[in-house]
Structure formats: structure tokens, C-alpha cells
Amino acid sequence: MNGHARNMLWQAHRTQPTAMVLLTLILLAMNEFGNGTAQCIEKSCSKNLHKGIKLSKFVKRATAELIKTYQAAQGNFAEQFCTMSMDSMPSSTLWGSSPAERLQSAYIRLTELLPHVTMVLQQQSDLNPYLGSLLSDLARLVIHGRHLALRLSCILQKLQPNVALPEPAVGPTALLPPQNIFQQKVYGCAVLTRVQKLTLLTARELKSLRGQCTDKT
Amino acid sequence: MTIPDLLYRVMLTIYRNYWKFPKHTQLNSVNDACNKVIKPDLLNLPIKPENLQCIALQKGKRVSPNLTCHWDPGEHAPDSNTSYILYAQYSYKKLANNLTVDLGSFPIYMETKVWVEVKNELGSVNSTELLAHAECFVKPNPPSNVMLIPEANFSMSLIVNWTHSFYLKLKYNIRYCQAGSSVWNEVPQSATESYIESFRLQFLQPYTDYVVQMRCINQKGIGYWSDWSPNATARTPEASEMFINVLYVLYDMRANDLCFYFMSQDPVKSNGKILGYNITVEENGVSAERHVVHSKEHQLHIKGEKMFIRMTAHNSAGVSPVASLVVPRSSQEQVRWSVRDGQLWVDWLPPSGSKWLLRVFEYVLEWVSVPEGKRDCRKSWPKKKCQLIQSPLRGPSVEATETQKTVFHLKWEEIPVTSQRGFLTNYTIFYKTGDNEQCKRNWLSPTKCYFTACAYTYLIKTMIKNHFWPHIPNPSHSTIANWSPDCPTRLPDLSIMEVGMFDGKSLCEEDKTVLPLKKDKYFSEEHSSGIGGSSCMSSPRQSVSDNDEGDSCQTTASTMQYSSVVASGYKGQTPSLQAPVFARSESTQPLLESEEHPEHLLEGSRHWTSGQGIEQQQMQEGKSSYNSLNFCPVAKKKYTPTLTEDPPGLTPCYMPQQSGH
Fold first, then answer.
1. Residues of chain A whose C-beta is under 8 A from some C-beta in B?
2. Do A147 and B107 touch (CB under 8 A)?
3. Which range has the worst mean pLDDT, A142-146, B161-165, B282-286, B373-377?
4. Residues of chain A with C-beta less than 8 angstroms from the C-beta of B90
5. How confident is the model at residue B329 (pLDDT cuts 50, 70, 90)?
6. Identity of the residue in A37, A42, A55 whose CB atom sits nearest the CB atom of B92
7. Which residues of B touch A54 (CB under 8 A)?
């Protein structure tokens, strides 16, 4: 990883196999997704839509709990961390005139934010490798986020079969400036907050698309 | 390529793929394949797994990433070279593992495809793919922190509380039972389908321990039910409505007073822990006393004729309703008993009177085994009869005492109570002479009786006889007396009083003079039977032997007198200075008064004359009339006091005269 501070005190005692395994899985999932080899097993538009709604709500709830866990792990003044804004990450706003376009924007935002979640995982692992549940929760958030992204792509393929999905940007976190610990703490909470908001918007858009699917299966 | 060549190639391909061949085998023809092939081990080909099922358990608040699957491997066990590979794919990527697939993060809301590949050196085969949403494999943990909470003033209700512990929405299933019972009551699942954390159980028993368990499943009903939670136990509060069920009333026959004894029910059914009882007793319409009892048993002695007992119980929740008991003392009018078919029947009437006009629930009939002291009772509703007792087991042992010529006493002991099997009403005595049963008599529960074999009947016959012909003494009743001039003993005048069931009062005074023999000594009304009567048919003989006790019979003119022989000289003896008195035998045979005491005879005749009748005339005419009377031979055998033997004199001892009557 580049440019971010590390907790040199913990580096000598770093033995976090679980976090590293999770991180490896995340990287593999990202590569698979990036290669475009993912397949939509569920063929039904309505069922995809239904599961998409469920998954987006699930991720939203998981993110809300993760924020609490994250704040508890940051020590003093943790509540203030989440009130600060940062511009070095994608926003959670959606664009487009139609639900399908907005859903597509949600898919793009999600794919842009998930690498930042991975960054937060790595930073937190460097700051405190023994955080335990925070690191695993962050890893799971990445995985479920990827699942949601896959689900959105399947839905878009059904809704707009002739529209190619935009490719996610490669290495969005490569442009992050170096951050001190305080900035990392603020950065981590900001990323999680945006993911939570994005999943909320995604669930709304998916609900608005319930009548859009023509198949009855 | 000709068809045979094509066929060869196809067959060769098949053979190579499925059959074993030694290495470096050169197959030039089909025959070579047939000749050189090692017989295939078709039996050891891998068998397609069937019935693939997978499950993922809850871990913490999430689902474990481990997906465990099981399947049916087939009919025969695989050999050691067979391996199983479980694949789970929720994208297209294969994640190889063994029987448990670690999915990293459980792919909730993602379609998951699972299959098993079985592979060995001969080949491989896949099971049917199991395709489902990942949550279909989820088995949640039982609900946590399940608690059963009682509420004050709600004696029939308990609240079940639990905690959500899963990120999936669940629905629950509650079951409960009374502690110690194996029968569970299940709350309908429709009542606990929503995402709730508490539920109220209702219509429970007050003051009762209950056990509750819970389980849960995905709110959509998909996946697996969790295991039942551990038992949660609580007791419902007490209720003021208690039940006092058992009231025992013991009638102490020995003390002749009522002993009221009660015992309370089990607390479980009493809806609470009873702290005490209040008992109010009304005797004969007057509130007599009030008792506060803190024990489960109590005893009161009451002597009133009619008692109205009220009883309440109280616990921490309040006072129970009043329980009432009406106790009328048994009287002859209300309770009656009778014997029917060898059984004792008890009849009674319901309590009468306005105060007692209560709805009677049941009657309690109680009896006691006297020797054992055991009490027993039976409840009877709505019957008013009860049969309890059977016929006695055996009769008493009888002993004859004070045996006399025509009179004997019988004595017997009352049989044991255990043999009575009821209350004895009477005794029946059977006796006979020879083989003929002559008489039986009923006696009410005495232990002895004087047996004269129908004295009253005899009296009647005697009256008739004496009116018409005189009584001829029975020679068999004679005994040898002293016949010596040295014994100037004069036979005392003897008169035997007749003994019988009547004392002669029923006869007119004139008739009394007819009585040749009267012996009031044996006449005893205490031996009379209060129930039953004599059924004697024969006439007894009179007894003349009672003078040995020193009783002097009246020697009035109404009695027959015995003669006294005036002594005269006797050969060979020196006559004493006093004229000896020679006594004839002590015979019941009276001498003719004309021989000795003409005046007596005259009086007797007059006596006879007063008796009227032809018989008297015959008496006056002379002794020839006597000679015409026949004597009945008396049985000379010794009389033994047994019931089976006829006492002497029972048979008629005279025969009617052939002439003159």
C-alpha cells in the first residue's frame, strides 16, 4: 500500500492471518469481478430484483452496525470523526433521468467505493491488527458489497440488455494522498458513511423498478 | 474410413477411457482389444451421489461461512481411492474444498450452486447440482435469553421474553408445559410470525410451575428451524379462588358425638399456598363457634342435632368462596337399615327444613369395623341406598346348662364381629326328637334362653285335659324313698306349680284352681322372646322335682296332694312307740283321697265339681274311672340336654278315654 502511515509499534507484532486471508479473498473477488467473468445464475428479472432489494438493505444494516464498531475502536472523539467530510472519495449521490439510469449510477458508485472500504481495512489492520471483529466486518462488507454489485449488474443486464455496463475505475485509491492517523480515522468513517447512504439509495431505486421486469418467474 | 474402421475407433476410444489396459498396449484390431483387455472393474466405478443437502449454521450474529453438505453415496462403499470434492459456486468460480466449503463470507441473498464430484482413477461423476439462495441453507441458533416472567395479579398468565440475535429476520415458535409433564402445548405459529421479542401465555393454572422453550427460523419460512432453547421455568402467581375439596366427617359411635374431621387438598390445585382456614359451626340454627386453623387437618367435636359448617381458606391473594357442609344427625326417621338377601341396606332421607334446603352434592356413608377399628366410607350420589353387609359367616357354639327333666338352658357366646358381617337381628333355635324336627324358636340376640318348648301351648292343652280327666302321674318319674317305720317322715305335701309362658293371669280365677301343678319358680318373663314366638306344637310335661330346692309348694286345696301311708305293724319289726309313717314312693301318682283323706277327697271332688265337666263326675263316681286311664310310657332313657333329643314328657302321655267322653 502507498502513502499511508503505519503503526510502527504493531508492525513487529503483526500476526493477523484472518485479516490477511480476508484481504486475499477480497482481492481475488475484485479480480474476478474486474475480469468480467462473473455470471448471473439467477435468470429471472423479478427474482434478481427481489434479492437485490434484500441485499441492499442487508448491506445498509451491516454498514450501520459497522460504523458503531468502527467508532468504538477509534478511541476518544470518535463521534467527531464521522461528522467530518472528505473529498478524496466518491460521493454517494446518484444521477440519471430514469430508474435504470439511476440504478446504473448506483452500480458505478458502489464499484468505486468498495476499494476504499478495502483501504480502510488495510489502514485499520496496520493501526491495530488485533481489532478482531472490526477487521472481519470490514472484510465482509467488501464481499457483500461485491455481491450487491454483481446483483445490480444482473438486473441491469435484464433491464438494459443492449447497454454495456461501464467498467469500474482501476485502482481508485491510487490517487489518495498520504494520511496521518487522524486523517485515517476520519477517512474510514467517511467511507463507511457513504456506503451506508449509497445502499439506502440503491434499495429505493430497486423498489421503484418492481414493475419494470416483464418476466413472471 | 469405412464403417468398421469407425466402429473400431469408437470402440477403442471407449475401451481406453473405461477399461484397463496394460501400459503400452498396441491395439491393432477389435480382436486385440478383446483379447488384451483386462477385464474392467465396472463395480468400482464411482457412483453418482444422490440426495445432496447442505446446511450453514449461525455463528454469532451472522451465518458461518462453512457450508456443510451430505449426500447418499450409493449402494456399495467406495474403495480407498475414491475421493469426494464439494463445490460451491455463487459466481462461476469453483471453490474447491472437502465436505465443508468455506465460503469466506456467507453469500447471503446470493444464489448458490452446490454439487459433489466423486472421482477415482477410473473416472469421476458429479452429483446433481443443488441450486438455491444461500439463506435456504441457514440454520439459526435458538433464541437467546429466553425468560418466563410472572406478573402480579395475573394468576393465569406468564410473559415470555427473548432477544433477537441474528441479522436475519426470524419468526418464532413457543411451546410450554407444566413442570413435570411430558405433554407440550404449542403456541400457534401465526401468533409469533412477526419480528417480536415477547409473548404472553394465557389461560394457565394459578400457582403452577411452567416450563417454556422456543425456536426460530427465517421469517420467510425457508431454511432450517433452530434447536429448541433451554428450559425457562416460572410459577404463576396465586389466585384468590381456591378450592377446598376434601371434607371428612367421622361419626364417633363410641362417644356418641359428632367428630368433624377435615383435610385440605394439595396446594397445586388449591391455586395457592393456603395460609389458614376459617371454620364456622352452626348447631341447631345457632352460630356456636368459630375456629381459625393453620394446619391441614383439624378435628372438632359437635353435639348438636343439625350442624351447618362453613369453611373458607385464605392465601396471600385473598379468601376463597365459602364451602358448606350440612350434617344432620342420623335419626331413626332419616337413616334406616334393613337386611335384604343377606346384605345390609341403608336408606336415608335428604335433610329437610328451609335452612337445610341446599343443593346436596353427595352423601358420605361411613361405617366402622369394630374389632379392627377401621373406618371406611363410600360416597353415593344421587342414590339413597347403600348395601354394605353380608350374612354371618357361622353360627354360635351352644352349650346346655341347668338341665332338668323338661327344662334346659342353652347358652352361647356371640360370634366375633368379623364373623357377623353385620348386625345380628335374631337367633333361631332348632331342636327335634329323633329324626323329626319338632320345634324352633326365634330369640333376639340373647346369649341364653330358657327352653320349655312352648309352655303356653302346653298350658292350653293342660287346661283341657284337667277339665275332662285328672292328671295321672307318670311312674317313670318315681324315685325310691325310705320305707321304714324308723322314718316317721311324712311326705310333705307337695304341689307342683305349673310353669309356663303365662303366669296364670290370663286365666280366670276359677281356672286357676284347676291348675294341678304350678311352679312359679321357673316362670320367667325375661326369657320371653320379643320377636318371634313359639312355634311349639307339643305339650310339655309337668315337673314335680323342684321341691328339692326347698320351695314349698302351696298345698292348698287346689293342688293335688300326695298320700301319706299310715304305718301299721310290720312283720319282724318292733313297732315304735309312735305310729310309724310309711311313705310310699315319691310318686307323682296321687292316692285316691277316698282312701286316706276322705275330706280331702271330698274337697277335691268339690274342687273337681267346681271345675265342672264330666270328668269331675267321674271322679266322684269312683276310682274305676281312673283305672280306665291309660298311662303313656315315658321314655326311660336318660334325658341329655341336646337339642336333637326330645326332652321327656313332650309327647302326649295320656290317651283319651274310650268311654265316657
1. 22, 25, 32, 37-39, 41-42, 51, 54-55, 58, 61-62, 139-140, 143-144, 147, 150-151
2. yes
3. B373-377
4. 41, 147
5. low
6. A37
7. 109
Tell me whether residues A151 and B110 touch, CB distance under 8 A.
Answer: yes
pLDDT above 70 as % of chain B:
42
Instruction: Show residues of chain A in contact with B104, CB under 8 Å.
Output: 22, 25, 143
SS (H, E, C) B27-60: CCCHHHHHHHCECCCHHHCCCCCEEEEEEEEEEC
The reply to whether omega before B46 is within 30° of 0 (cis) is no
Tell whether B113 is within 8 A of chain A (Cβ).
yes
Grid cell at residue A9 = 509499534
Please tell me the predicted confidence (pLDDT) of residue B65: 86
Q: Is the pLDDT assigned to residue B201 strictly greater than 90?
A: yes
Whole-number average pLDDT of chain A: 79
Residue B506's pLDDT band (boundaries 50, 70, 90)? Answer: very low
Tell me if B105 and A38 make a contact (CB, 8 A cut-off): no
Q: Judge whether B219 is closer than 8 Å to chain A, CB to CB.
A: no
Minimal C-alpha gap between A164 and chain B (Å): 20
DSSP H or E stretch at residue A102 = helix A99-127
Cell numbers that stand for B607 in this block: 274342687
The residues, any chain, with a CB within 8 Å of residue B505's CB and separated by 6 or more, are: none
Nearest to B105 among A55, A61, A140 (CB): A140
Q: Are B214 and B143 in contact (CB under 8 A)?
A: yes
- The predicted complex's ipTM stands at 0.72
* CB-CB under 8 Å, B104 with A25: yes
Alpha carbon A76 to chain centroid, angstroms? 26
| Residues of B whose CB is below 8 A from A25 | 104-105
Quickly list DSSP for B461-508: HHHHHHHHSPPPPPGGG-B-----TT--PPPPP--PEE--SS-STTS-
Q: Do A151 and B131 touch (CB under 8 A)?
A: no
The predicted pLDDT at position B652 comes to 36
The Cα A161–Cα A154 span in angstroms is 10
pLDDT in tens, A34-51: 444 457 878 888 889 999
| Cβ atoms A176, A186 nearer than 8 A | no
Burial B334-369 (b: 16+ CB within 10 A, else e): eeeeebeeeebebebeebeeeeeeeeeeebebebee
Average pLDDT over residues B481-502: 40
Distance of alpha carbon B131 from alpha carbon A55, whole angstroms: 18
**Contact between A58 and B108 using a beta-carbon 8 Å cutoff:** yes
Q: Is B108 on the interface with A (CB under 8 A)?
A: yes
Q: For residues B313 and B303, give the distance between their C-alpha atoms in angstroms, rounded to a whole number.
A: 25
Q: Which residues contact B114 (CB under 8 A, 6 or more apart)?
A: B52, B54, B67, B69, B86, B87, B88, B89, B101, B129, B130, B131
The mean pLDDT value for B79-108 works out to 65
Per-residue pLDDT reduced to its tens digit, B112-159: 888 888 877 778 888 888 888 889 999 999 999 999 999 988 889 999
pLDDT band with cut points at 50, 70 and 90 for residue A148: very high
The residues, any chain, with a CB within 8 Å of residue B71's CB and separated by 6 or more, are B49, B50, B51, B52, B53, B116, B127
The helix/strand/coil state of A114 is helix
Which is higher by pLDDT, B485 or B291?
Answer: B291
Please name the residues between 121 and 140 in chain B that touch chain A, using a CB distance below 8 Å: 131, 133
Looking at residue B295, its pLDDT comes to 76
Please state the pTM of the whole predicted model. 0.48
A-contacting residues in B 164-203 (Cβ below 8 Å): 167
